[in-house]
């Protein structure tokens, strides 16, 4: 009995599972010790240099201006508000870039497979040119070589005397809501709800009877017609603040600064070149027999592409598309090269230089980009789960 129990105890240490647990515990202890050492040394060095820690600096007065802000901001605002302004500007250019890059990328990717020789070659040239030029160079090109070469406000390029393009940006009329405009917004919300319900009903009807409803045409008619009818019935409760030249600049309207335009163009065009290749490879991954079967039953080419090819290609496209969206969001930090007031420029740049709170500011900036990326990844993964082919 004694020999048996002794051998069992010896076998315990020769058990791979036990050894793995012991090794992992030692690694965790070593990692915890390293983190404690780094934090202790960092706090000691900061104290020795008289640098305070914490987030109290967010309540201090910033004292600098920001050329573009989606919320109220002035030089008397706090550093916490500069963080919000920078975050909103980052989300703005990222959102606009994702939409534009997706539209351009899908159009170019489909064009690459076109039977039209000229269109296919132009699409191929677009991809090969823009994806092989560094993004930073493209940003500088659009900003310095194109937008900074525009005329002064007095010699602005105009369209219908309402849109003005000059070296200071694009100036356009700004909508001003009048009494009764809320009814139009409620009509728009109702139209969206009706279109969503119509889409669900059309899918159910097609699955049950095989009959397809013209959802796109009906949806467009409802989305445009219902709010427009309410808008006209309430006496057009929307006015326009048209910009006018006063001295050396325009007054009134809304101005899109050239930094935003250059960054948006560069991010959209550059990312679209990669999305185009993703779309092309996704379409080519669909078996050719699917297209041949569609032609055999005389389906038009646009319906074949929209109803048969693209839905099957999306299971290949979506995972790679997610990576490009994340790259676009992170590449927006290159805005500092041309002075666009994004999160990195106004918070990890000016705010950091004024306060010296390097650890807190850099940690908050990294956490924001990580959170945005995780949210985008989660949304794309949910969509990807819906586009996967269901096995029977």
UniProtKB/TrEMBL annotation:
Keyword Cell membrane: yes
Record has Transmembrane helix as a keyword: yes
InterPro entries: AA_ABC_transptr_permease_3TM (IPR010065), ArtM/GltK/GlnP/TcyL/YhdX-like (IPR043429), MetI-like (IPR000515), MetI-like_sf (IPR035906)
Domain ABC transmembrane type-1, residue spans: 87-380
A Gene Ontology molecular function term of the record: transmembrane transporter activity
Gene Ontology CC entries for this record: ATP-binding cassette (ABC) transporter complex
Keywords attached to this entry: Amino-acid transport, Cell membrane, Membrane, Transmembrane, Transmembrane helix, Transport
Listed transmembrane segments: 21-40, 83-108, 129-150, 183-202, 214-234, 254-276, 334-352, 358-383
Matching SUPFAM superfamilies: MetI-like (SSF161098)
Subcellular location field: Cell inner membrane; Cell membrane
Membrane-related topology note: Multi-pass membrane protein
One Pfam family hit: BPD_transp_1
A biological-process GO annotation: amino acid transport
Family as reported in the entry's similarity comment: Belongs to the binding-protein-dependent transport system permease family. HisMQ subfamily.
Protein name: General L-amino acid transport system permease protein
Organism: Halomonas organivorans
